[in-house]
Amino acid sequence: MINNQDREIYKIFFENGCHYGRAKRFTHPSIRPYLLKSKNSNIEFFNIKKTSEHLNEVANLIKKILSENKTILFVGAKPASEQPIKTIAQNLNMPYVVYKWIGGLLTNFDTIQKRIVYFKSLLEKEERGEINELPPYEREKMKKELEKMKKIYSGLITLNQLPDYVFIVDLNFKNHRTAYKECLKKNIPVISLSGSDNDISKVLAFIPANDKAPRSINFIISQLMNLIQK
């Protein structure tokens, strides 16, 4: 029996489209237990009760991780998840990737770290006004390089070692598949917001919900942040 409080919570999930999955032909078997059974629709629908339960479980897990002073790398390198992932990471003082996943970020971390150090040196030159003192051609070239690096590395400035955990929105998104594979290779536990086409068999914890629509992602991530900060 659903009480009135839960009914209101579930209603908000529905209003934000969190219950929508993809067409049934894309469904991954591992996520079937979190979907409603339907013979009349070609679209999968999430069991919002389970979505809500898992949202609370993930929030409690992240609270525990933070209390242990561990690092979570937040990954949302697609337009729909860029802003909410950046917001939650910054609120929790955690590193993030929202522009694109850099191949080898985890599996070739030493090399990536050198790029981060170089990026920091360019930021320092910019702050001191040294870039503006260069000859016009060199100045423009360095400014273009810096702007490009800001998009890629700005969220990684505080990442001085491999993260203890990685949070990924949509494991099946093309750019995120590489991130997920690198996590598995490096034995880094993964937490995810996962839609109906995601393979969740190897993740530590997950929120089963619509991971494609901006409105749903925004709602889930904002709710997650609220629960963590309670």
Q: Can you tag this structure with a few keywords?
A:
single chain, 230 residues, alpha/beta, 5-stranded parallel β-sheet, two-stranded antiparallel ribbon
Mean pLDDT: 94
The helix count comes to: 7
What strand line-up does the widest sheet have? 4-3-5-6-7
Number of strands: 7
H and E string: HEEHEHEHHEHEEH
Largest sheet, strands/sense/barrel:
5 strands, parallel
- Which parts are unreliable, with pLDDT below 50 for 5 consecutive residues or more? none
Question: How far apart are the first and last residues' alpha carbons, in Å?
Answer: 27 Å
Shape: elongated
- Portion in strands: 5-15%
Q: What features would you describe in this structure?
A:
Strands 4-3-5-6-7 form a five-stranded parallel beta sheet, sandwiched between helices. Strand 5 (165-169), helix 6 (174-185) and strand 6 form a beta-alpha-beta unit. The chain is α/β, with parallel strands linked by helices. 48% of the residues lie in helices and 12% in strands. 34% of the residues are buried. The model has no long low-confidence stretch (mean pLDDT 94). It starts with a helix and ends with a helix. The chain contains seven helices and seven strands.
